[in-house]
Here is the input.
Amino acid sequence: MSLPPPSRIKILKQEPKEEKTFDLAKYHANFKAAKERLDRIAASSLTPPEDFVNPTTLLYDLIDRDIWRLRGLEVIAKHIGFSTKYKSLTVSLFANEEIKTICIRKAKDKAGNPVKWKTFGSKRFMPYRIFDDDDPSLFIGFGIGEFLLLELLELNYLIIQSDSIAHNLSSNPYTPKIEDRYIFALLDNDSSCKATIEPLQAHFESCKVFGLDFENIWDKKLPKGYDFRDFCNDIAKEIRGEKVLADPIEVKEAIIDNLANEIKLLLGGEYE
Here is the structure.
């Protein structure tokens, strides 16, 4: 078989794929409007359609209802929407007033496989907030549920959307400058999350970084993947017991007291 000379061979260059861009403000507005429509149906005396999904039920499935009673109206109004396509909650993340990321709690990929926290916008964006400047502690949460919880509890926080992001903090434009703080990582019960402590300490070198292991806090073996959301929900259920509702402040104080006891053990009385 003879081949044409190189000069006559036509090489088809593949154009680089453009990164998808989304109008996040429009998505956010649509998700908010969808949730508000469902809320109106739930509040009406009309019988809802058979396929009706109540967003409040989904909120309580994510985070215990008594924790939402802390400052849920404020957090929900800003961050929570509903995807009609996936019949799932959405959570919008902001840098000041600019939407950086929208996450759908439960979705499906093109093959129909379930996907947790389908993301529009930046997966590298790291929400960061200091509620109390006089408190030297800062909690690192891994995931969107942790973001909502730390907002509800009003604890100083940094949120990392996935474990891998913790290994590339220096190249991430969203990494905040954090100095001279006690950083406590709320570790999921798996090796991937626990492996983030070393890179976190290496990057935030003027801080002291510690991992909070919930097996140590509960002093028992926990399922793989047990996380801060499970921890908070378990405490709320324990305090509520057989009652219809628990005092949300009592739930908050119990969560903080359990974390504080573990922190004192880690630091040996160094931190008050």
User: Anything to note?
Assistant: The chain is about 35% helix and 20% strand. The CA atoms of residues 66 and 245 lie 7 Å apart. Residues 1-19 have pLDDT under 50 and may be disordered. The longest helix spans residues 24-43.
